Amino acid sequence: MRDIKIIVATHKSYRMPDDPMYVPLLVGADKNSAEEDYARDNDGDNISADNYSFCELTGLYWAWKNLKAEYIGLVHYRRHFKGKGKGDKFAKILNREEIEKYLDKSDVLLPAKRHYYIETNRSQYLHAHHAEGLTVTEEVIRSRCPEYAAAWETVMKRRSGHRFNMLIMRYDLFRAYCEWLFGILFAVKERLDISEWTPSEQRVYGYLGERLLDVWLTHNSVKYIDIPYMFMEKQHWIKKIGNFIMRKIKHA
Prior knowledge:
This protein is of the alpha/beta class. It is 42% helix and 16% strand. It has a 7-stranded mixed β-sheet.
């Protein structure tokens, strides 16, 4: 049996998976007083104070700096990898036996890609967010690790990508990824002024982290398995699709 720890990033009290490999983690704990007995992302080496702009990545950073296991992962309180269980949604969360079988085939498990079809990753980001985030990130990559520039261009031209910053990785790969990812994001943070942005757009480093995962995977030729994911709460898909199309039309 592998030693697996998967943090469940949450900002409030919520029902959690029963298996102890899932570690509930209160993110943004510096400003969050939830009373549950969860691990907190402001313990130990942390960037909890930046949760407003790094989102669940403060949890990823905490896991990188404070956890050690053969495999480490991240999911969300309302977004999980989907297993084959039956019953309510919590019975359908990917369980240990299913994870073990996947890990027999690959050391990296990711959520199924999101497909845009009428957008590239670059155009989708530019239509949905401030362009400066993407521009500065590209500048940092070209100056800090130019060997990743080709992978960046490749990923930006694709019409699909992994989202949500969800993952399960073998420990050495996880550490390598986090060292690279946060090196990039901290350098971007030094150059980017988001003080006048809306709260939604200030979540920029979470958005960028989603795109950077595929850049790292592509450059390092990391093999992975895509796993279905599920939302634990109702999703307003008609509204989301409508907003996606309107952004496309607006910027056409």
